[in-house]
Amino acid sequence: MRSVLTSHQPEHSGSNSKGHYMRMSAKLSLTALAAALLLASAVGHASAGRLSSSNQNLRLTFSSLEFGSESVTIRCPITLEGSFHSRTIAKIARALVGSVTKAAIKQEACVNGKGGAFNGVERYNGTTTPNSLPWHLTYESFAGTLPNITSLQMLVSGFRTGIEAAGVCNAQYGTATDNITLSATREASGGITGLAPVATQNTINLFRRDSGIACPATGTMTGTGTVMLLGATTRISITLI
Questions:
Q1: What range defines the domain where residue 127 resides?
Q2: Do 20 and 120 belong together in one domain?
Q3: Which terminus of the chain has fewer CB atoms gathered within 10 Å of its CB, N or C?
Q4: Beta-carbon count within 10 A of 72 CB
Q5: Against a cut of 0.85, is the pTM above it?
Q6: Are 133 and 150 contacting, i.e. CB atoms less than 8 angstroms apart?
Q7: What b/e string do you get for 158-170 counting C-beta neighbours within 10 Å, with b at 16 or more?
Q8: How far apart (Å, rounded) are the C-alpha atoms in residues 174 and 182?
Q9: 25-54 pLDDT, tens per residue?
């Protein structure tokens, strides 16, 4: 009787081991598959979280940028030059991504008065302006449905400018908390085709009134510009990576 029990014991043990091995193999396969899917998802999200610029150095040009208010409206050609800190930009709201290192107003071409950028060179109210550069450039948001981005929004902050309207107002605008949201229109291939202040996010505040009887407390910026590679007429392109 004992020998019978002994003869069947190894066969029973082997069957259990084989089943256990198969179950373990199945579990390991499922775990590996889940890990692979999780890794693929993580890589996809990481890629969708970044933008790439064709160039770091850029020039923003406005043939006519308007400072508008109830009492004063002045239009001037303005050029801004600067760069992104990296050609790769994280899509994180209010992340510092670049700076404006040069701001120039073509004062002789202004209409209804004169503007002066505080760049250490231009004249405002009879004196040379102090230098408020560099101005900060931060990422704000995008419009469209990924991967088809139709526009990108950037903030410009840290700026200071002066306006002169004879007999009406000489004043400085741009406080520490002011920023202007610029929206860059993007075509399907990635090229930036235009640039404009966002209508509801472009208010700048009075910093100091130097003279005049009707200096507005606030003003808004309006105009359409272009974005080009610095020193060339090549468009900047932004792609999703």
A1: 50-240
A2: no
A3: N
A4: 20
A5: no
A6: no
A7: bbbbbbbbeebbb
A8: 16
A9: 555 455 554 544 444 444 444 445 899 999
